[in-house]
Specification:
By secondary structure, the chain is an alpha/beta fold. The protein contains 13 helices and 17 strands. The longest helix is centred in the middle third of the chain and has 23 residues. Bound molecules: iron/sulfur cluster. Pathway: Isoprenoid biosynthesis; isopentenyl diphosphate biosynthesis via DXP pathway; isopentenyl diphosphate from 1-deoxy-D-xylulose 5-phosphate: step 5/6. GO terms for molecular function: 4-hydroxy-3-methylbut-2-en-1-yl diphosphate synthase activity (ferredoxin). This is 4-hydroxy-3-methylbut-2-en-1-yl diphosphate synthase (flavodoxin). InterPro entries: Dihydropteroate_synth-like_sf (IPR011005), IspG_bac (IPR016425), IspG_bac-typ (IPR004588), IspG_C (IPR058579), IspG_TIM (IPR058578), NO2/SO3_Rdtase_4Fe4S_sf (IPR045854).
């Protein structure tokens, strides 16, 4: 028998995302976006902004779930008047999160009529496709930017496929039709979206808003289109970029589509803040979009928010649903503990956990985690070895395995991340 030749290890590619694209750092309240800072998670409320308590409660909920900025709709004078009251209520609740006002059509009037709103917001979102029509468009846009200058606030110039600047799109369509090599209509519309965002940003700079007070976005609902649009935006400017797939959809479709699009861009170093625009399922908490955004960044190794549980999918080697329940219990436990650990045990967000269903991959996967458990599969002895830092430390048995494992996790965190440690 001939032995296989020993081949030297080839040069293996480096692990990880490409370096972040350099952008201006934008101060939004107490949060810095861009300039190489960690990618910021943001979300948006779906309450009626005039419902001060309901909106403040949902902002607090999103913030507790980990949203680092929260956007609210400001669509009427009443909504604008509610903004300072919401800010006050949040301050009383010790919720310190930048609030972003989302303006369409009448933002110039609202920011002028309700100065307390202009002051209370940490950033204004302006949609260049919805600022105004005809001759009024430029003056209304200028008013919005002047208000941002007056109150020292940054803006997001957020173009959107669903409210594309039709006049600009028509000009580009006509130019394209008259050219020797016309492009397909989709490419022209993408260009219109990019130009809408960039032209508006440069117009804001001309009016006097510094570049480090501008964030750009150009959202579409198709994955490939979004990737193409943002690659262009990143190539053509140094503005900080807000990523998000608009109208991503409900349930797994929304999660998969958003993750697919954003992961490609983040891997290329593009994007300074993200929002996952999920349609909540009936009864589902609005915080789902925050959790998905965090999990996307964490599974890509870009940030750490909460300990992550590795769990096997289960198969015919285990008839028990116990490991599924345990995986869920462990994930919920660490998520619930994280707000406290963030203060008392900083670093605990990096904890890795494994909950596995049988001996095939259980011990191996558990050894790779900081702390892991391998539950008994069908026909195995009813014992569950626990591994810490790659070493088997204890074997759990009986009815209380779940509670005992959760206790072991707490003790592990205490030992490793308490300030004394
Ligand atoms: S660890 Fe065991 S139970 Fe889980 S998927 Fe693998 S073989 Fe199946």
């Amino acid at each position: 028998m001939t032995e296989s030749p020993i081949i030297p290890l080839p040069d293996l590619p480096e692990l990880g995302a490409l370096p972040r694209k350099s952008t201006f750092a934008v101060q939004v309240g107490n949060v810095l976006v861009g300039g190489g800072r960690p990618v910021v998670v943001q979300s948006m409320t779906n309450t009626d902004t005039t419902d001060v308590k309901g909106t403040a409660d949902q902002i607090a909920q999103l913030w507790r779930a980990g949203s680092e900025m929260v956007r609210i709709t400001v669509n009427t004078v009443e909504a604008a008047q509610a903004v300072p009251q919401i800010a006050e209520r949040l301050a009383m609740m010790n919720v310190d999160v930048p609030i972003i006002g989302d303006f369409h059509y009448n933002g110039h009037q609202l920011l002028t009529a309700v100065p307390e709103c202009a002051q209370a917001l940490a950033k204004y979102r302006i949609n260049p496709g919805n600022v105004g029509f005809g001759k009024k468009k430029d003056t209304q846009f200028a008013t919005l930017i002047e208000k941002a200058i007056e109150y020292g606030k940054p803006v997001r110039i957020g173009a959107n496929w669903g409210s594309l600047d039709q006049a600009l799109a028509q000009v580009l369509m006509d130019e394209n039709a008259a050219s020797a090599n016309p492009k397909d209509a989709g490419a022209v519309l993408r260009e219109a979206l990019i130009r809408s965002a960039l032209d508006s940003a440069y117009k804001a700079v001309e009016i006097g808003l510094p570049k480090d007070r501008i964030i750009l976005s150009a959202k579409v609902s198709g994955v490939q289109e979004l990737i193409a649009v943002y690659r262009e935006l990143a190539t053509r400017s140094d503005f900080a970029l807000h990523l998000g797939l608009t109208e991503a959809g409900i349930g797994s479709k929304g999660i998969v589509a958003s993750s697919a699009a954003l992961a490609v861009l983040l891997q290329e170093g593009i994007g300074d803040t993200i929002r996952i625009s999920l349609t909540p399922e009936p009864g589902q908490s609005r915080t789902a979009e925050v959790i998905v955004a965090q999990e996307l960044l964490q599974t890509m190794g870009l940030r750490a928010f909460t300990p992550m549980v590795t769990a096997c999918p289960g198969c015919g080697r285990t008839t028990s649903t116990f490991f599924q329940e345990l995986a869920q219990k462990v994930q919920q436990h660490v998520r619930d503990k994280m707000p406290e650990w963030r203060i008392t045990h900083p670093g605990a967000e990096n904890l890795t956990l494994a909950v596995m269903g049988c001996v095939v991959n259980g011990p191996g996967e558990s050894r790779h985690a900081d702390i892991g458990i391998s539950l008994p599969g069908t026909g195995e002895a009813p014992t569950a070895p626990v591994f810490e830092n790659g070493e088997k430390t204890v074997t759990l048995r009986g009815e209380a395995i779940a509670d005992e494992f959760v206790e072991l996790i707490d003790r592990y965190v205490e030992r490793r991340w308490s300030p004394q440690a």
